[in-house]
Amino acid sequence: MRAVVVGAGLAGLAAALRLRKAGLEVVVVEQLEGPGGKAAGWEGVPTGPTVLTLPEVPQRILAEFGQGLEDLRPVSPLTHYRWPDGRSFAPELSLEPTLAQLSREEAQSYRRLLAEARTLFEGLRETFIFGPPPSAAALLRYGLRAGWRARPLGSLRRLVEAGPYLTPFFLRFATYMGANPYRAPAVLHNIAWVELGLGVYHLPGGVRGLVERLYRLALAQGVSFLFEQRVLRARVGPGRVELLETTAGCLEADLYISAADRHHTLSWLGRPLPRYALGVSGFAVLMRLKEPEPLAHRVYFSSDYRAEWREIEEGRWPQEPTLYLHTDGEAAFLLVNAPSLPEAGGVPEARPYAQHLLQKLQALHPLPVAEWRALSPSDYSLTSYRGALYGRAPHGLWAALRPGWGVPGLRNLAQVGGTVHPGGGVPLALLSGWNGAGWLLGRMHGG
Ligand SMILES: Cc1cc2nc3c(=O)[nH]c(=O)nc-3n(C[C@H](O)[C@H](O)[C@H](O)COP(=O)(O)OP(=O)(O)OC[C@H]3O[C@@H](n4cnc5c(N)ncnc54)[C@H](O)[C@@H]3O)c2cc1C
User: To the nearest 10°, the Cα dihedral for 252, 257, 48, 282?
Assistant: First the structure.
């Protein structure tokens, strides 16, 4: 059997490996010049993901091929946080040194909210993350089992009220799924456990290093790649995709996996685009440094986190944003949250805003910048529909559920990746690709 995978991001690489492992001949079509998608990197600087969590997910995929991640190491402190009044906080996996940095009241809130995040994560992990897209019966079972502990009606904003420092600290984790934290449901608090309870990890070369390993493994396994080639449209017959028309000609296969953004997949399928609200985008400044900096993740909170999100909600790039800075040797990556692109109308010029952000950064953490480039929501729109990095805005309990892998009426196609089940982020996109490919194989074999 022959398979075509659209997209060589993390999900596409994982899907290609799973199909190859099952003995299929696999071709991956990718519009960019190399693998990685959002995690592709520029001159050794990350273009997207920098925080690696749940490393057992890539470890399990590599182990299927007899490989490991021996050079993986935990990052400590997890992240350095700073507020405009000079207050700082650098949580670690170990509770004692973490709580020692907090007042008695804050320490109580931290313990309570960490335990709450753990309960949420452990309650939902099998149904919403590691398993297939949940059926109605699975949702019901989850609801009955987890009950009120799943916080079905609560808002994140209310759940994490813990004073002027810890509230924005806990709210921010919901942005990892593309949410405006002030509109997110309480259940998204589970993400805090993944980072604070399970840890942040690092590989040489960062997430880009992981992409390289998966790509090299796929090549060694005999997967073929067509780079700088785009899928333009699908030719569809009764109940199945017959072939893909691409810039490299027509590609015909027995089964197809699209690991592109869901809207992009639906566009080349000629399907109507869903009308749901989109989650947030990002604005990044990638820097090459003259001198190396230590490996670190840093967050510089704005003076008014709520006002920042109001600006984003109104479609503006925030003027006093919270800055996320990642440094690793001669690479530095600065990221702020930004609205996804409007349906119509222009967006501001990227360069002046990037300069504004660089000026803010230099006042907080001076860096010897040799060269830099900006990545705006328009740039991210190449891999994400209208620049919305995680697809649908997870605002509300139902909206937090990701679309499934199947495309109605097409038996030999699966959609995987960060905008469908189980969602975005490095480990989840990998799970989506690996498990989604397994699901399609089962379906093709009558499962
Ligand atoms: C700025 C930023 C910061 C992030 N930070 C983190 C983080 O710290 N930690 C974390 O875990 N996650 C983070 N993420 C999220 C994570 O990067 C993504 O969820 C994950 O990389 C998505 O992988 P994917 O394979 O689903 O999608 P993508 O990487 O978008 O891959 C899809 C691929 O499909 C290709 N494609 C699309 N349409 C076509 C077509 N028609 N023809 C051919 N090819 C096509 C695209 O070019 C792309 O390469 C971040 C993302 C961004 C953008």
Answer: 100
Query: In sequence order, which residues have a C-beta less than 8 Å from that of residue 348 and are 6 or more positions away?
Result: 317
Q: 260-283: b or e for each residue (b if 16 or more CB lie within 10 Å)?
A: bbbbbbbbbbebeeeeeebbbbbb
The answer, yes or no, to whether any atom of ligand 1 lies below 6 A from the CB of 418, is yes
Binding site membership of 387 for ligand 1 (Cβ less than 6 Å): no
| Whether the CB of 38 sits within 6 Å of ligand 1 | yes
How far is ligand 1, taken at its centre, from the CA of residue 428, in Å? 11
pLDDT of 178 over the 90 cut = yes
Contact present, 117 and 151 (Cβ < 8 Å): no
Q: How far lies 35's CA from each of 3, 50, 235, in Å?
A: 18, 16, 26
- Paired strand residues for 155: 185
Average pLDDT on 10-34 reads 98
Gap between the Cα atoms of 62 and 149, Å rounded? 35
Helix (H) or strand (E) holding 287: strand 281-300
What does the radius of gyration of the chain's CA atoms come to, in whole angstroms? 21
Q: Is the pLDDT of residue 35 over 80?
A: yes
230 lines ligand 1 (CB under 6 A): yes
